[in-house]
User: Which sequence fits this backbone?
């Protein structure tokens, strides 16, 4: 299917995340009432990356999902294309390898990682299908690929609350944080991201088997997991 309509060029998205790096963690906690840590824990549960496993966290941002993977004993690499975000990640977890790179052209060999994750970053891929294919490619046969993302609830009253939250509160918080453009982009990126059924189909098309997902936070958060098929 290729690039999602309305996706910003990589250079603009990179510059945006570099601008908001200093407020990113604080804004995440405010917008989710601190629940984003629990959602990452559940994503790592599905990744099944225990002691000695090799794990890659794509679009790692300030490193929270990579840190959770490492807490389970995995050997973790965190990758992102925004240098300012990576600088903060390195400060939070100096024992984790954080590298700058492109999610659409991962520098790693085929079958390099037992688990590959992305948390709240897949909707920023300029080409979602290419990003999913790359994540599947670097996973070992039988390895897990996990996508943690915000999804749009379809049924009221949650759909009404979601619109009020994302179209009203989030941009207002962005204005207070000094970057209204970034936090206007966030609701837009969520709206254009595929729903759970479609995302599962696209993960399957990327080379994954047994794709399943769970919805949490009343249906606002979807966590998809699939297994890399053998060649």
Assistant:
């Amino acid at each position: 299917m290729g690039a999602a309509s309305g996706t910003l060029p990589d250079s603009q998205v990179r510059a945006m995340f570099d601008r908001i790096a200093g407020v990113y963690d604080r804004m995440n906690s405010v917008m989710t009432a601190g629940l984003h840590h629990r959602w990452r824990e559940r994503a790592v549960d599905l990744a099944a990356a225990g002691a000695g496993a090799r794990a890659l966290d794509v679009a790692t941002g300030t490193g929270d999902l990579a840190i959770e993977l490492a807490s389970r004993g995995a050997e973790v690499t965190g990758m992102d294309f925004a240098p300012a975000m990576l600088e903060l990640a390195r400060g939070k977890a100096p024992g984790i390898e954080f590298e700058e790179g492109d999610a659409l052209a991962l520098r790693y060999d085929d079958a390099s990682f037992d688990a590959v994750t992305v948390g709240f970053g897949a909707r920023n891929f300029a080409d979602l299908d290419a990003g999913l294919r790359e994540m599947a490619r670097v996973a070992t046969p039988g390895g897990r690929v996990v996508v943690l993302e915000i999804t749009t609830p379809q049924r009221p009253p949650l759909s009404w609350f979601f619109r009020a939250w994302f179209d009203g509160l989030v941009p207002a918080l962005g204005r207070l944080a000094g970057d209204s453009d970034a936090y206007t982009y966030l609701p837009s990126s969520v709206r254009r991201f595929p729903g759970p059924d479609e995302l599962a189909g696209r993960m399957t098309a990327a080379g994954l088997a047994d794709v399943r997902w769970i919805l949490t936070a009343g249906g606002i958060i979807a966590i998809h997991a699939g297994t890399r098929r053998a060649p």
Q: What stands out?
A: Residues 1-6 have pLDDT under 50 and may be disordered. Helices lie at 10-32, 36-47, 64-71, 83-92, 128-138, 158-177, 180-192, 196-205. The CA atoms of residues 107 and 214 lie 30 Å apart. The longest strand covers residues 139-150.
